[in-house]
Every structure is written in C-alpha cells, then in structure tokens.
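Researcher: I'm comparing several assemblies side by side, and this is the next one on my list. It has 227 residues spread over two chains. Same procedure as the others: predict the full complex and return the structure.
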Amino acid sequence: KNEVEQSPQNLTAQEGEFITINCSYSVGISALHWLQQHPGGGIVSLFMLSSGKKKHGRLIATINIQEKHSSLHITASHPRDSAVYICAVMTQGGSEKLVFGKGTKLTVNP
Amino acid sequence: GAVVSQHPSRVICKSGTSVKIECRSLDFQATTMFWYRQFPKQSLMLMATSNEGSKATYEQGVEKDKFLINHASLTLSTLTVTSAHPEDSSFYICSARLLLTNTDTQYFGPGTRLTVL
C-alpha cells in the first residue's frame, strides 16, 4: 500500500463545477504539499500545509492531521485548471524527503 | 514565489553519450536540492538529495556512477546522465529547498525531458 493515496485517479468535470480531490496518508508528516503538473511536465507548488486551511484564488486546501487526510478544492472550475494534481507529504523525523501520491488527472470541459 | 530553473528543457541524444542537466535557484540560496525522475503516468520518484559542498545521497536502486550530481554552489546543482541509454529516457525534475525560520518548502523546476535514441 502506498504511503500517500489520492482519489480519484481521474476526474472529468464541466466548466463551473466544484472540484474536490482527496489525499490520505499513512505516515506521520511535518507538512503536505499540493502540486499542479500541466501537460508538458512543469510542476507548480500550489500549497504547503501543516494544519488548517489555505485559500488562494479559486483554490482551497484543507488538512486534518488527526485523520491524516487533505483535500484540494477548486471552485468555479475552468478548462485551464485541467492538469494533474499531486499530493506530496514531507515525512516526520527530520528528513526533508517528499513522498508523492500518484496524482489525480483533472479534465475540465467547456 | 521563489523560482527554480532547469536547463535544457528538452534534450535528445544518442545512446552512449552523456547529458548534463542544470538546476538553478534564481532568487534564493538552496543548501539542498533534489533530483526526481518521472516516467509516463507515474508519480515522481526521488533519485538523490544534493547538498551543497558535499556528496549527494542516492536513493536505493539509483546508480551513483551513472547519475552524477554536483552541487557546486548554493544556487546550482547539476545532474549528468553518463553513457545514456534508451531506458534513461524520462522526465527529470529538480527542486530546491528553501529553509527559513518559519518556512521549509521545496520549489520545483520546470523539468527536463530526456530522450535517448
């Protein structure tokens, strides 16, 4: 079993829909990242969370440390949001290594 | 936000040649940089951790003599794929760690697509 699990693997939505992508992890973490990877490969760091909730534009990320779960929400989705969204955790213990989920491929249709 | 660049963005080379990929942190100093590899439809896999002024730490299964890493300055790390073969074709991504009093995060480069013919 992977240490970081994302769901769903693939998600197709219509423009304007509210999107939720989930991430569960099984290890102790010091922080969790949400990353966005567009076709062509470049990776953008969207959020880094260690507790609570963060908001940036139409994107919202939440984390529940006790339940070892995080969600990424996109409000009023747009075709340009189409990308792979990756959850990555920084494990506890002083290691700065990131452990990645397999990603969620989001397609937003006009 | 902080910017990390990679060069080249794409490279095609013949089997047996060596390819060098550069990773630069443009507006901050990074004592630690990471090199990842991503095969199609797979998640990123950490290859090695590069520390400025010291030897890189390689993950299990990654050949250090094949993937040479040099972190000569606080803003530059290089990955050299030596004697490249078609199975080395992949997307290589670096990240740089920004460590401040209240911040510990990684910023990712745009990646380098390597195709070995």
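Model: For your comparison table: The first strand of chain B starts at residue 4 and ends at 7.
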